């Protein structure tokens, strides 16, 4: 994804855009621009006024890229690269309405002023020709049309179990798979695993998969949320879609005119199917919210380092307890639907809390499957309708710990 320098872009830019459109793209650019890079240009956003009545806004960290076009009244064409955060902060504080952008002096100073008052900013920048060229998808590449609501749902149900350790790229990523009319996302950090699968309205063709880095997942989620929010604000607007365009070593996502690209992770994702138990000898049905509330309270006494809590399942009752030398003890109980033998098993409280937060979106009850004290827990939503059970499939696996 490392681009070459642009050619033939420069000149004195003079144009007008709406604050709303510019702020939206400045926000996206700021999220992608690399503030810590040893290459100062990567902390910038490129503003490129074209002759076709548009302003192109682009940013990249050489692994992720974002670009979009907004309608503009272009009086003089030109391009300038400005600090992404500086641009966002200034546009954000300006009043609603038109924003005038022009370059001054030798083309490296940019004036940004409001069209409805006297507020004006000046920023130093660098010539647009020095900005890296962003990748573009091949014209003949296959395109997949995915509902934004389902993409957001996949991410919400799996992002919490992505490892934050970027030295382990196969765990610091999400497996994104599709086949026939199904779309799936799987994540694991080695201690827990989440898998969410949804049924789409149409066949997506041949099976394929992508391994997307953690940073890309966060940005894709924000883009999906924006698309859904904009559609909600427009009467009779059709449900928004995300167009996925896989390419060799990269993937492109077109979201409401914003093109987001990502360099794929070159690693082997763990064989997740072997991690998910085929059967649990004991299954309990528990109220999702009640379980989450009591777990949150009892975990206040858990060890800071391990977050360990103890679950005791007995007929009709779930007991949650924790203790640590410096934080004392805590315990609570709640009723549940369970008629098996008593079992005591320890887990990291946060791992359970993350899963229950995801399941709240699906069901009032959670199904907790256990086999033995050293076996993983399997959590699933107790879907209330046959339609949801046929359309969605979420499962989380949490490894036990000794308490």
Question: What does this entry show, briefly?
Answer:
This protein has 403 residues and is an alpha+beta fold. Helices cover 20% and strands 40% of the residues.
Notable traits:
403 residues, alpha+beta, DNA Polymerase III, Chain A, domain 2, 3 domains, nine-stranded antiparallel beta sheet, eight-stranded antiparallel beta sheet, 7 helices, disordered N terminus
N-to-C CA distance: 47 Å
Give the overall pLDDT as a whole number. 91
CATH class value of the largest domain: Alpha Beta
Q: Regarding quaternary structure, how should these chains be classified?
A: single chain
Per-chain topology:
Layout: E1 14-18, H1 19-32, E2 44-49, E3 54-60, E4 64-71, E5 73-76, E6 78-83, H2 84-93, E7 98-104, E8 109-114, E9 120-124, E10 126-127, E11 144-147, H3 148-156, E12 173-179, E13 182-188, E14 192-199, E15 208-213, H4 214-233, E16 241-247, E17 250-255, E18 258-263, E19 282-287, H5 288-298, E20 308-314, E21 317-324, E22 328-335, E23 343-348, H6 349-359, E24 365-370, E25 377-381, H7 386-391, E26 392-398
């Amino acid at each position: 994804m490392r681009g070459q320098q642009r050619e033939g872009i420069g000149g004195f830019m003079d144009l007008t855009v709406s604050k709303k459109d510019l702020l939206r793209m400045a926000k996206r650019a700021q999220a992608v621009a690399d503030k810590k890079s040893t290459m100062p240009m990567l902390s910038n956003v490129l503003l490129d006024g074209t002759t076709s009545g548009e302003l192109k806004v682009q940013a990249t960290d050489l692994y992720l890229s974002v670009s979009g076009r907004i309608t503009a009244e272009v009086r003089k064409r030109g391009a300038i690269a400005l600090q992404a955060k500086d641009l966002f902060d200034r546009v954000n504080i300006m009043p609603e309405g038109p924003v005038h952008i022009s370059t001054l002096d030798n083309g490296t100073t940019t004036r940004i002023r409001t069209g409805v008052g006297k507020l004006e900013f000046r920023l130093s920048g660098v010539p647009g020709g020095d900005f890296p060229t962003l990748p573009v998808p091949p014209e003949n590449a296959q395109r997949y049309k995915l509902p934004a609501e389902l993409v957001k749902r996949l991410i919400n149900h799996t992002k919490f179990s992505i490892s934050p350790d970027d030295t382990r790229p196969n765990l610091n990523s999400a497996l994104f798979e599709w086949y026939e009319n199904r779309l799936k996302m799987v994540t694991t950090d080695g201690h827990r695993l989440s898998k969410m699968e949804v049924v789409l309205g149409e066949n997506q063709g041949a099976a394929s998969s992508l391994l997307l880095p953690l940073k890309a997942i966060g940005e894709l989620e924000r883009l999906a949320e924006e698309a859904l929010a904009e559609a909600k604000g427009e009467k009779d607007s059709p449900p928004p879609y995300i167009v996925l365009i896989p390419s060799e070593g990269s993937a492109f996502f077109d979201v409401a005119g914003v093109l987001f690209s990502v360099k794929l992770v070159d690693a082997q994702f763990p064989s997740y199917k072997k991690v998910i138990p085929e059967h649990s000898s004991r299954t309990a049905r528990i109220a999702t919210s009640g379980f989450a509330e009591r777990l949150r309270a009892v975990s206040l006494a858990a060890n800071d380092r391990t977050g360990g809590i103890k679950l005791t399942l007995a007929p009709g009752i779930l007991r949650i307890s924790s203790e640590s030398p410096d934080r004392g003890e805590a315990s609570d109980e709640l009723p549940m639907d369970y008629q098996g033998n008593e079992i005591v098993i320890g887990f990291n409280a946060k791992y359970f809390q993350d899963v229950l937060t995801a399941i709240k979106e699906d069901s009032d009850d959670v199904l907790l499957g256990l086999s033995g004290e050293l076996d993983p827990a399997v959590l699933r939503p107790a879907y209330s309708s046959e339609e949801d059970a046929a359309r969605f499939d979420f499962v989380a696996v949490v490894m036990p710990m000794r308490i």
